[in-house]
Fold these 3 entries.
Entry 1:
Amino acid sequence: MELDELKSLINHKLSTDHTTRSAEDIAVLLTKKTGSVIGKLKRSLRIEIISCIVVIVLFFYLGFAGGYRSLQIYFSVFGVLSFIFLGFIIYLLRRTIQLSATTLPVKSNLQTIVNIIEEFNRRYFQFNMALIPICFIFSFILGYNEPKHIPELDNFAKNLFSAKWQVIVFGVVYMILLSVGAYFFTKWYLRKLYGRYIDQLKECIRELGAE
Amino acid sequence: MASEKEFISLLNQHQKIVYKVCNLYMDRHSDREDLFQEITLQAWKAYGNFRGDAKFSTWLYRVALNTAITFFRKEKKKPEIFSTDIIPEQPEEPDTLIEEQVKAMYAAIGDLSKIDKAIIMLYLEDYSYAEIGEMMGITANNVAVKMSRIKIKLKEETQKQLATN
């Protein structure tokens, strides 16, 4: 039996057996929260924006009010970096909101969603990875140049290390472990968040492209 | 500013479209309800930009299909098998041949990919290949090729289903 011979029957069946909703039921639905991935992305971007603002305020406060010059520079630089990241998140949120308000053809819609999520993943990863060397470099430079001594830190170092080379080895091992750990954790985290979803959307795009 | 009343009234008139998409894409009742809610919300968000240069039904199809295709459930408790429970059962009487065929075709449609389901949905609505292509973002030729492939696939699957019954 061909599809065309059953066309009207299937079409009829598809559209008939359902619970009809009243206008009031539909009005209630408009007040509910979206469960789509794009909706979730929007929510997570909004949370990131709030967190970023809190971090910026905190970093600048520590930067200006911190007793040590090294900490002042350290937190000020991180405050500026977070400010740049904040700008990027706001841009991405605007693009996501724009996407919700437009009705694109299926293929363009899929591509736009994939682009937004991939851009979010890429920048989030770059930002996290860029923080690691900046963090290390600043820690060393500023630690060496700090005019004031931090007694707690000096005591800790004295108890733990007896020679300068031990401090260097410890520093290098610590940096490598932290960098590798942060690299794999960020990759895993982003993959867990949107990896499977992106794969499924790409599969749909590939299918649309194939003749 | 889009009028909420106007939107609700239009959606109320065209809610069969949303149900068709929900029935086509979701197997379980609860999933169909969730998808209905999601399509309603997405349509409301996009309604402000609906300029009326297309028919509301065509616009709603586009929103509904976009939402259904990008709507993923985190975990499925059972594999997605297209439900035939929306076909009214009449246990007292044996199924006629045509009912058996419709059921088999239904099941075969349920096994199609999300993209093929969207194309079938629009085809069942008598949209032309050019219109389907415009909604899907592909050429009319591509739609024709896909439709021909889908029809063969459905015929084969339907025959298999009928043979096993």
Note: The domain at 89-165 of chain B is CATH 1.10.10.10 (Arc Repressor Mutant, subunit A).
Entry 2:
Amino acid sequence: MDSALEIDVTLDLPEFRLQVQEEVPLGGITAVNGPSGSGKTTFLRVLAGLEPGTVGTVRFAGQSWQDDATHLPPSLRRVGVVFQDARLFPHLDVAGNLSYGARRRGVKEDHVARIAEALRITPLLNRGTGGLSGGEARRVAVARALASDPQLLLLDEPLSGLDAELRATTLRVIADAVRELNIPVIHITHSPTEVAALADRVLGFSMGRCTGWQTPPVVLNAKAVLVDGDVMVHLGEASFPASAGIRSGDQLTLAIAVEDTLLSQHSPGDSTAAFSVLADVVGYNGDVVLLDLSGQILRLPMSGFLSSAAREPGQKLWLTVQKFWARSADKAV
Amino acid sequence: MTAAVLLTLQLAAVTTVLLLILAMPLAWWLATTRNRLRPVIEAITALPLVLPPTVLGFYLLILMSPDAPLGAAWVRVTGSTLAFSFAGLVVASILYSLPFAVQPMQTAFQSVDRQMTEAAATLGATRADLFRSVVLPLSRRGVLTAAVLSFAHTIGEFGVVLMVGGNIPGRTRTVSIEVFTAVETLDWAVAHRLSLGLLVFSMIVLIGVYALNRGGAGRLG
């Protein structure tokens, strides 16, 4: 397939084996989501050509990066990699870091300037890397990778170690920049919020193997309000206790894994779920039902256990959510 | 006396330049290779540290003799023998000071974070390119230390020079041999002046090296 990254590789490391067979579409942002230690970073290193012990094939848009006879070095793969730590060159200033890859790949200066602008680092260009804050260093690292004219951008939890507010703003800047430049991205993360904010599709990862495509999380906007002295989350007609750390008046983003949702025609009553809320059916397409929750449209897979009458527009369905991640303006909880 | 000082400085300068050119790729190879021969090559490199200079000089003398392949080839190309010549002294000095050039550079190259070289590789740098553009700038203290130590060690060598070069005024008589000659001929004034000069020079060099390395601990590059 010409517009895909075809991967069929095995890598044996001491006490760890990575075995991946997957085809990743080359468009938009693909999140690789899995627990710590599941081999996500190793997977990314294999794609970048940084693991010489890798056996198998990697084909990028029909071009072989690795097979029995080939192991293209990282310098020839034209991948931009943003590592967990920024890895900026300490002997070069910010502009020098940006032009490092750009010069080697013949990228024009005005394009580099545009990338610096998109990542809002233009005022930092003449500074050394030592005095940069965490968020600035990550943005410079992303800009440096983008300035090397990559045909694929690999992000390895590029926001780890930053506080939630900085993560949110940095994430938005990165997402806008890569969409503007139209470069396919593989984004490694174990944060549902990051997945929700960025990804067009989600690849599950566990114990060194891909566990298949996951549905991207549902994102809902809600508001925290004070009810009888308790901070409650207000969503449609439902109110439920907010997690610790959320303040009254906060605007919230709720990220909900589709696997953690349940649709029913009748109220589930008291349960151990986080909350249940009544929503209107507004459409149905294949296996997906469209729900309107106080003006927010949700796409959810329709269970075969619900009657076909229940999915007709105008019907009401209970949406039960077992757990969610809430992010407010200043911190994630 | 002046001839000896000039000859010594000339020998040290030529040796240092050639040594850096030869030792740098060797140090980079030793710092990065997974080859099983690495300990053997490291041992050969470090041999001049433990071998008596006379032993090294003895073997070099044999290698440089017109009967040996190296010595014969030299005679064919230049028309003169390698032993008891300035060129012979340079060859001997390079081997004798090799560990002083290789080891500081190897340590410096090894301490460059692999993360930096990986980042450079993903940005399009080939192996040679990332050595020049990332490893070398981040190891410049190590390279400078190697240069200073090689220079100073060459100035101070005695046994190898005597074995390979003999004691020919203006050609192979370096400062340390001049001191030896002065003492043998009871010329105490010359021995004093040259010895004190070498002592002060060595002290200054070592203070410089330690100051350089202390400065390097605090900040990168």
Note: The helical segments of chain A are 40-48, 74-77, 94-104, 109-118, 134-147, 164-181, 192-198.
Entry 3:
Amino acid sequence: MRPLSLKGHERALTRVRFNREGDLTFSCAKDKKPCVWYTENGERIGSYDGHNGAVWDIDVSWDTTKCVTASGDLTVKIWDAELGNCLYTINHQTPMKSCGFSYSGNLVCFTTQKMTKNLSTFQVRDLRDSSQMVEGGESFFYSQFDVNATTALFTQMDDLVTIGFESGLLQQYDLRNPDTPIHTNESVHRYSVQDLQLSPRGDFLISASRDKTAALLDVNDLKKLKQYKSERPVNSACISPNRDHICLGGGEDAMQVTQTSVSAGHFEAKIYHMVFEEEFARFKGHFGPINTMAWHPSGTIIATGGEDGYIRIQEFDEDYLGFTYDF
Amino acid sequence: MTGINAMAPAPEVVSWAEAVEQDNAPHIQEGADGTRTETAFTEVDGVRWKVVTQFKVINKRVPKVVADRKKWVKFGSCKGEPAGPQVATTYVAEEVDMQFTRNRAGEQILDVQEDKQTAKTTSREHCRHCKGNDHWSTHCPYKVMYQLDEEADADKDTEKDRMAMGMRPDGRQIDRNRSDENTCRVTNLPQEMNEDELRDLFGKIGRVIRIFIARDKVTGLPKGFAFVTFESRDDAARAIAELNDIRMYHMVLKVEWTRPSN
């Protein structure tokens, strides 16, 4: 594997994503500038300037015309992906933690953090309704939680959303019936859910948690199907689009490393078999924990973002492409 | 290089000026596998540079939307940058090998290491005897075996101490024999005489190894006799011959052979 190493961020990465065709890579970090890159040669096209704090999440619409960023400066911004202009700004009283587009690209969901008297919230806004996209606009879906919502994701068209919480709880809401969650799973994880990613065909969810496991979930009822155990907190997990493989990335936080008796390390990305729940391969590269990762739609590339501020685009070689899992 | 080689046997070179001119012309060569090597010359601040670029042209079918996105204009921090990757943001990192923990035969390769790590991480109990992490020392199932081992170790230590002290029977006997053979007894010793004076007196005869003045256990006063050990028996004999009956202070010394105690 001859990886590309992209240095466009000054601080730790928080999210990398591919667009639908996989030719662009979107990344954001704890500095203020989300970036967009060509996946093929690692060329940076531009940065979206305007945020005033750490950018926690970025998402791109299906047609790669818009992208949305959630930031610690209490705003969610929607950008023109091609020109880098800010189209809309959504304000709130507390930092924004995650954001995502719906399947059609018309709805934007985001979660806000719990802070002093403000509860953690999950909101959805419609980009087509101009009254929702102005300063002081109201979301058409609004839900409050006592515990921090860490990640949110549209899991079925424009109707169902799944929210992961700091306590390990997972909840699924139907936007057409906003009162109560339609599915709840509180036993899948014991600690914070760090990442939720959908499989490319939309039939599975994978959740990564700080309890050193990642779980494969049924997208329709949040039932746990498989569990993948690691030796380190899992910060991100992704599913291969064309093979039964799972990739986990994680590692101890920098501030925790000196407090553990075990030597530091284990910053590799690990590849597991989806069905047999066993690790069969690993590759290293980052000097520090892996904070986020995404699998390319072609199945031959994985992008990882690390605590060291680098994005690595790893293209698999023949060893992996020719590998068959013997059981 | 190929051009230079081709030029060497060329008969039409008639002057050095023409040859130099040909060498300075930019040209392109094509390799067998489709790679192209482009050679160009540039002059910066009066210094001529030869720039060799090697690349490969690949035609790839992509969806139209992907082809359209290839024409995006740079914005933000990259405003005004030319097309192509920039060295400030993009570079090819070192080769990374993917490690397979299960080879094609399905064997687990890294299992032992991982198990150790896991045990270390999770267990707080530690056994001194078998170094395991799943129980305390008092509950060790192999305690009896390890205790026997410990007793054997203790015996070894004791033996070591004996050897270190030099308490072997052979060594002791040899030392005692030598000491008794070369020792003479001094009686009628004045009380005022101390060890230094005695050493001075007997040192004239030969090398003195040991001097022992007998003292009362309670009062600490000399008892009036002493033992002097010489290095060789000849010295002891000479001391007896010369120092017997000499007058020290107000007493007449009596120097004679030591009688064996056993």
Note: Residues 15-103 of chain B form one domain.
